[in-house]
TrEMBL record:
Lineage: Bacteria, Pseudomonadati, Pseudomonadota, Alphaproteobacteria, Acetobacterales
UniProt protein name: Transcriptional regulator
Native source species: Gluconacetobacter sacchari DSM 12717
Superkingdom of the source species: Bacteria
Domain Helix-turn-helix: residue ranges: 28-78
InterPro entries hit by this protein: DNA-bd_dom_put_sf, HTH_17
Length: 102
């Protein structure tokens, strides 16, 4: 007896998630690590520290550290559903105002 049913297509599967490097699982991260996580340059984070725009940080001598929880909170505070969100427009307006300052 033959099976007249058409063969079902193979199931689609997602690739396994990539392992998270151990350095990103620590409670405190260095500037270069936070920059990599956020897709920013370390210089941008330095600028954010000067103007008070980025995540809060700890300064221990020459070393700057960011608490993972502070970075995550900063990210959540900047979530927007669309470009007319108050959060989005207030950030853009603040940046424009700083550019106009002498």
């Amino acid at each position: 007896m033959t099976n007249d049913k058409p063969a079902s297509p193979p199931a689609l599967t997602l690739p396994p998630p990539r392992p998270v490097p151990a350095r990103f699982l620590r409670d405190y991260l260095r500037t270069t690590e936070v920059a990599e996580l956020l897709g920013l340059s370390p210089r941008t984070l330095e600028k954010y520290r000067v103007i008070g725009e980025g995540p809060t940080f700890l300064k221990l001598g020459q070393r700057v550290l960011y608490a993972r929880s502070d970075v995550e909170a900063w990210l959540q505070a900047h979530r927007c559903a669309h470009t007319s969100d108050d959060t989005y427009t207030s950030v853009i307006d603040a940046r424009r105002a700083r550019r106009r300052e002498p």
